Amino acid sequence: MPEDPICGMQVNENNAVRLNSKGQYYYFCSTRCKEKFIQQQGLQEGGTCLSATGRPFFKNRLFILFFLSGLFLAASLYIPFLLPPRQIFLSYLKTLWRAILLGLFLGGIIDYYIPQEYISRILAQKRAASIFNAVFLGFLMSACSHGILALSIQFT
């Protein structure tokens, strides 16, 4: 069985994500590892240039969150009944801003360096410990907004 060149995981050729570059095949556990390999090696797939397939910035969940928060804050300047929620929102941010940034930073590091396939493999086991693993990993995964909140609360 070939080994994923990014994470070192043994992959089945039949189920693996493949990359053909200059007649050589590479096998990966996920498209994420494949994309990381292409980026690191500057490779081309099938002899053609790969275009950037990243998501537009305006579809990023963090951008949407900041945009809606800014929209709410701007609207609260002109709409009187939004003043109390704005004051509560700003006092909440004033209290937790360091912890939220730290939680986002740690969650991003975990999300970047730990492939989700590893976490899925751990959670797919049919044992009682899988529930505890799910709870623990849920606190750490940046994909889970509750994980960011939990990290933020723990550091305040």
Write up this protein.
The structure is a single chain. The model is unreliable at 45-53 (pLDDT under 50). Helix 3 packs across helix 6 and helix 5 packs across helix 6. Strands 1-2 form a two-stranded antiparallel ribbon. Helices cover 58% and strands 6% of the residues. It has 156 residues and is mainly α. It folds into two domains: 1-50, Roll (Ribosomal Protein L24e, Chain: T), CATH 2.30.170; 82-154, no CATH class.
Determine Rg (CA atoms, Å): 21 Å
- Regions with pLDDT < 50 over 5+ consecutive residues? 45-53
Largest beta-sheet characterization: 2 strands, antiparallel
What is the H/E string? EEHHHHHH
Number of domains: 2
> What proportion of the residues is helical, as a percent range?
55-70%
| Percentage of residues in strands | 5-15%
Count of separate DSSP helical elements: 6
Identify the overall geometry.
Answer: elongated
Estimated structural class: mainly alpha
Distance between the termini: 47 Å
Spatially, the strands of the biggest sheet line up as 1-2
**What is the mean pLDDT?**
75
By DSSP, the count of extended strands is 2
